[in-house]
Amino acid sequence: MMCGIAGIYNSKKENSGLISNSIAKMHEALSHRGPDDYGIYESPDKRLFLAHTRLSIIDLSPNAHQPMSDKEALVWISYNGQIYNYRQLQNELKLKGYEFKSESDTEVILHGYKEWGIDGLLKRLRGMFAFAICDFRHNGNASAPKIFLVRDRFGIKPLYYYYNDQVLLFSSEVNSIIDSKFITLKNNPDAEIAFLIFGHLPSPLTTKVNVFSLPVASYLVIENAGMRVVKYYDLLESFTASKISNPGQIQNELPAILSEAVKLHLVSDVPLGVFLSGGIDSSALVALASKVSPVGISTLSVIFNEPEYSERSFQHLISRRYRTRHMELCVTEKDFFKEMENIFQAIDQPTVDGVNAYFVSRAAKQAGLKVMLSGAGGDEIFCGYRSFNQVSFLRGIQQAPKFLKEVVGSLGFFNYRWKKTRYLLDNEDLSFYLAFRALFVPEDVSVMLGISLKEVKDTLNKVMLSIPKRLVSGLKPIDWLSFMEINYYLQNQLLKDTDFMSMRHAVETRVPYLDHILVNYVASVDSRLKLRRNFPKPLLVRSLNNMLPEKIVFRKKHGFSFPFDLWFKRKGSEFFHNATRKLNLDQKYADALWRRFQNGRLHWSRIWALVVMARQR
User: Fold this and answer.
1) Are residues 106 and 21 in the same domain?
2) Catalytic: 3?
3) Cα distance between residue 463 and residue 459, in whole Å
4) 3, 134, 330, 383: the active-site residue
5) Which residues pair with residue 328 across a beta bridge?
6) Cβ atoms within 10 Å, residue 602
7) What is the structure's pLDDT at 394?
8) What is the pTM of this model?
């Protein structure tokens, strides 16, 4: 059940009228996330308010209305997500005597919490979720509740909160908390610095001071006038576990795990499809879904008029092979500029990505598909990015003498990718990762924001404090990079963008490659089996047992991308220069950036980042 959730708890009784007005504003700000139903719960003492907007996927009846409570009205839940093993859990709970008024996974979570407690429940959940549970049982509904805020293992569904020892606000989107007007929020000075370095805001950072993203695989609990955050799952344990190194064992076990993950993700009471880009990940989903689904599969592709970005031949190859109901939507340059204002409105937290997710979700909406399966996570789990083949090379640069590292960094004049190797002057693990993923180097961020280099590095150091010494602890370089990609780029950019762009169009996006049982298994495989020269994603491809044509497997790595570069070079100058003027960027410096972009020496994402940042101010 994809939704928007929000809530306010004030431990004092004053301002109940203000809370009621504020929760209504938060609710309205989330209306696009759930157009099918909505509800607000108000506790008898008017200190707790829960809000919910519903996108109905499982059990479309009014019985699944939220916020939902147990029959005694002492435990309440507002929930966003999808639990794929909810039927199994429901049967277990029925055997224990629980009665269900709905067929929703929401009620499974509610009764499961009562039966197993929060820790026992979370160990059993298989899916994507963010929810709030408010428990009044210890002293009746006139007392202060025990409150849980919970987020899934990989951060597929978002949850943000503000807490000041007296007041708690939480929501699926930061803009909803801002719109509440219940508290005064200040802009976070670290946000723009982090955005220009990462291209997103790394968790728990947001654009507002004291508003945080709840860490993944964690729950926040408030009781007895105190708050704590508890981690209930750690992916690192799978990466550091005893390694599976027998290819025969993997070939016997992994195909079944993959098939089960995809089969579980197909459960739906509304039209469902698979986004087909034509790459290995999406093609594999189509192949597996066709194998395990009792009905035909619908596929959806976004296409372009620009031939160099066309993947139609690969898309058609898969759709014909598996006889899918295939649909296409052509996105043009005119569409992009026409939709630009709507794209900006959809962005909850700044990002350099998300444009593709916006149009894919828009296409799904137009095609009448309410649920889409996405291949997100495949590259991070199965080591599909080019960077996995560059780890040893960059580690060698990092270990070289300082003057050689500076020489390599000076090649940034020709291509900014070389300039990013300046991060290798620092021996921190996060610096090493930024050599792969950074948007800008600190020196450029300093110039753009008109602040000292020290301020930039101080913010970067704050982020670094959250990164343990993974390589020192014995993690192999390939596993380390996979772990970092999952916890930074995937979590903070791809998944976040997918959520707010798909929910802008009231479309649920599911990511079977992030089934935690599948991820745990792949993480525990010996990293030497995850890469093979001239053979992409060998673990995934071999597990498919020749289900993919060689033309798909051995095609040039493309990644799903828009002709953004071409479109913005032709018509983006005005947008870019208006943005740099708003940012008070030195115009000579801005002109130089634009020229480098036009000459192909600067990636479009760095130009777009400044446009996004200007709109966020």
Assistant:
1) yes
2) yes
3) 7
4) 3
5) 301
6) 18
7) 79
8) 0.94
